[in-house]
């Protein structure tokens, strides 16, 4: 489990932080150059500009859209997952957020912000491709964690 925590910490430090506040992105907004900023940091940064914004990472200029920059929901979900209580990212028993029974977790549901048992995951995932994006199968961690633990 230590191997998994190390990887998640490295991902968090190297890829999920705001270039302005250097913290995990909060309500991440994405620029056309694909660099991301916290919503509040970007809003403060925009207030100092007159209709045009320079990305502080790549120095590319952009016109500030009247509707603002888009929220990066993929990144938001990834950050939420990485900041979960890391030692619990395994296939141990958890209360299922759908049926509320204490069972073996097979997936994490970003929509409900909790773990799902196999039966509830099967039911939920049968609702279509768009709905399936709300889940992360925990077998990925078991497979990759075991591989990493064997290498140590």
Please, could you describe this protein's structure?
This protein has 152 residues and is α+β, with helices and mostly antiparallel strands. Helices cover 38% and strands 21% of the residues. It folds into 2 domains: 2-81, Zinc/RING finger domain, C3HC4 (zinc finger) (Herpes Virus-1, 2-Layer Sandwich); 90-151, no CATH class. The chain has helices at residues 2-15, 39-47, 73-82, 118-125, 129-132, 139-151; strands at 28-30, 36-38, 52-54, 61-63, 70-71, 93-95, 102-109, 114-117, 135-137. A hairpin with a 4-residue loop joins strand 7 and strand 8 (114-117). The longest helix is centred in the first third of the chain and has 14 residues, at 2-15. It is elongated and about 55 Å long. Mean pLDDT is 76; it is low at 87-91 and 143-152. Residues 18-59 form the RING-type domain. This is RING-type domain-containing protein. Keywords: Metal-binding, Zinc, Zinc-finger. Pfam families: zf-C3HC4 (PF00097).
What is this entry, summarized?
With 152 residues, the chain is an alpha+beta fold. It has two domains: 2-81, Zinc/RING finger domain, C3HC4 (zinc finger) (Herpes Virus-1, 2-Layer Sandwich), CATH 3.30.40.10; 90-151, no CATH class.
Secondary structure layout:
Elements: H1 2-15, E1 28-30, E2 36-38, H2 39-47, E3 52-54, E4 61-63, E5 70-71, H3 73-82, E6 93-95, E7 102-109, E8 114-117, H4 118-125, H5 129-132, E9 135-137, H6 139-151
Antiparallel strand pairs: 1-2, 1-5, 3-4, 6-7, 7-8, 7-9
InterPro entries: TRIM45/56/19-like (IPR047153), Znf_C3HC4_RING-type (IPR018957), Znf_RING (IPR001841), Znf_RING/FYVE/PHD (IPR013083), Znf_RING_CS (IPR017907)
GO molecular function, one term: ubiquitin protein ligase activity
Domain RING-type: 18-59
